[in-house]
């Protein structure tokens, strides 16, 4: 005891020992506490991120050969953008009578040269198009995407690398347009084809195949169409995610300009035309 007591009663030694032990404990405790706090903060943070996360569509790598004939037999349809719900109407809502009036299941594929879009469209009055009217007032698909994946996903204004493309879905005319009017600095790439009756996409092919209540379609669009001297050609790669949105205008009357319902995928507002922060995203996968 006499040997032990001095050890325990040695104030300096005891204090140092306690200090070190306490310090170590406190440090460990802090690490544990900080670790737990981080987990507690990170879990809700990730949950919030998931809630705020943009709707994403995976685009599969296209097979070696895609025959543009309207049939989807060579397509990878694992990932589908569904536009089937009343909440997805953004214009002339009263004109929509249900999914048989207009609904879309769209898939996208890619390779280094081309964007492929295909799917099934249910439309009770398909292929409504009149010469001299803009694609926005006919049966046509509208696709939005950014060719600069590094652009801020929260941007509320277009950058020059953002594109709004309209494609008439008809059984004869497949006119297209690219709207650039909303872009402050378009880097010399101006609006083309928005008045209708033009084919503005080089190498574009589109085909439809009628089915009961609608049709299947497929299209190929070379990426080179979305470039100029100042905007480089987009070359996708597996793992890359970029801004993406799509919708459709549905004309069901012989006279364009009357009422043309419109549905959108992720951005459930007409503001998608002006505000890329409302768009979803696309991820290119193998
Ligand atoms: Ca319809
Ligand atoms: Ca229609």
CATH class: Mainly Beta
Number of domains: 1
CATH architecture: Sandwich
* CATH fold type: Immunoglobulin-like
Please, could you describe this protein's structure?
The chain has 286 residues and is of the alpha+beta class. The chain has a single domain, classed as Immunoglobulin-like. The protein contains two helices and 13 strands; from the N terminus they run H-H-E-E-E-E-E-E-E-E-E-E-E-E-E. The chain has helices spanning 4-9, 11-52, and strands at residues 56-61, 81-83, 89-91, 102-110, 114-123, 140-146, 162-168, 176-179, 205-211, 214-222, 241-251, 260-264, 280-284. Strands 1, 2, 3, 4, 5, 6, 7, 8, 9, 10, 11, 12 and 13 form a 13-stranded mixed sheet that branches. It starts with a helix and ends with a strand. The structure holds calcium ion (CA) (2 copies). One calcium ion is lined by residues 101-102, 123-125, 250, 252.
Features:
286 residues; alpha+beta; Immunoglobulin-like; 13-stranded mixed beta sheet; 2 helices; disordered N terminus; binds calcium ion
Q: What does this entry show, briefly?
A:
By secondary structure, the protein is α+β, with helices and mostly antiparallel strands. Helix content is 17%, strand content 30%.
Topology diagram in text:
Blueprint lengths: L3 H6 L1 H42 L3 E6 L19 E3 L5 E3 L10 E9 L3 E10 L16 E7 L15 E7 L7 E4 L25 E7 L2 E9 L18 E11 L8 E5 L15 E5 L2
Parallel strand pairs: 1-4, 1-13
Antiparallel strand pairs: 2-4, 3-12, 4-5, 5-10, 6-7, 6-11, 7-8, 9-10, 11-12, 11-13
One calcium ion binds next to strand 11.
């Amino acid at each position: 005891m006499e040997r032990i007591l001095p050890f325990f009663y040695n104030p300096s030694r005891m204090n140092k020992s306690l200090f070190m032990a306490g310090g170590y404990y406190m440090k460990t405790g802090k690490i544990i506490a900080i670790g737990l706090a981080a987990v507690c903060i990170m879990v809700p943070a990730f949950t919030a991120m998931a809630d705020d996360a943009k709707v994403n569509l995976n685009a599969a790598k296209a097979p070696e050969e895609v025959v543009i004939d309207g049939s989807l037999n060579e397509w990878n349809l694992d990932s589908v953008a569904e536009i089937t719900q009343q909440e997805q109407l953004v214009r002339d809502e009263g004109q929509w009578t249900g999914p048989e009036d207009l609904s879309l299941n769209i898939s996208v594929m890619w390779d280094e040269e081309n964007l492929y879009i295909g799917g099934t469209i249910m439309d009770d009055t398909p292929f409504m198009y009149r010469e001299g009217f803009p694609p926005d007032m006919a049966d046509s698909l509208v696709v939005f995407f950014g060719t600069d994946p590094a652009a801020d996903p929260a941007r509320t204004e277009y950058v020059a690398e953002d594109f709004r493309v309209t494609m008439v879905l008809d059984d004869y005319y497949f006119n297209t347009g690219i709207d650039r009017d909303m872009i402050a600095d378009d880097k010399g790439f101006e609006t083309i084809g928005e008045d209708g009756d033009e084919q503005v996409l080089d190498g574009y092919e589109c085909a439809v195949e009628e089915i009961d209540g609608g049709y299947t379609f497929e299209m190929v669009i070379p990426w080179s169409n979305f470039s100029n001297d100042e905007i480089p050609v987009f070359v996708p790669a597996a793992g890359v995610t970029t801004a993406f949105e799509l919708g459709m205008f549905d004309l069901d009357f012989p006279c364009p300009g009357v009422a043309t319902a419109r549905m959108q995928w992720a951005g459930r507002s007409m503001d998608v035309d002006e505000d890329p922060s409302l768009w979803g995203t696309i991820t290119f996968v193998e």
